[in-house]
């Protein structure tokens, strides 16, 4: 449970959830309709993963290299 809470709070996970909400919702709907044959949802998974791969992480101060200050 704590892992799920941690990952759902991570900025890249939040961006993926926002950017890829439509393909993810379609995947969830497919799972509901195909409980006995989840392999029928492979195309939905592919679309979601394709979307998620396009989401770029945001740069935080800790991940951006420091730039030298201009001379005064």
Please give a structural write-up.
- It contains four helices and no strands.
- The chain is an all-alpha fold and 72 residues long.
- The protein has a single domain, classed as Helix Hairpins, CATH 1.10.287.
- Helix 3 packs antiparallel against helix 4.
- The mean pLDDT is 83.
Q: Helix count? A: 4
CATH topology: Helix Hairpins
Biggest β-sheet: count, sense, barrel?
none
Cα separation of the termini: 52 Å
Oligomer: single chain
Question: Which regions have little confidence, pLDDT < 50, spanning 5+ residues?
Answer: none
Count of DSSP strands: 0
**Class inferred from helices and paired strands:** mainly alpha
Mean pLDDT: 83
Integer count of domains: 1
Radius of gyration: 18 Å
Secondary-structure element order, N to C:
HHHH
Brief digest:
The protein is mainly alpha-helical.
What labels describe this entry?
72 residues, mainly alpha, Helix Hairpins, 4 helices, 0% strand, extended
């Amino acid at each position: 449970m704590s892992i799920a809470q941690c990952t759902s709070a991570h900025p890249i996970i939040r961006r993926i959830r926002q950017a890829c909400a439509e393909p993810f919702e379609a995947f969830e709907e497919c799972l509901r309709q195909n409980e006995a044959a989840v392999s029928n949802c492979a195309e939905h998974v592919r679309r979601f993963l394709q979307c998620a791969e396009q989401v770029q992480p945001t740069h935080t101060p800790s991940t951006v290299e420091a730039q030298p200050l201009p001379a005064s």
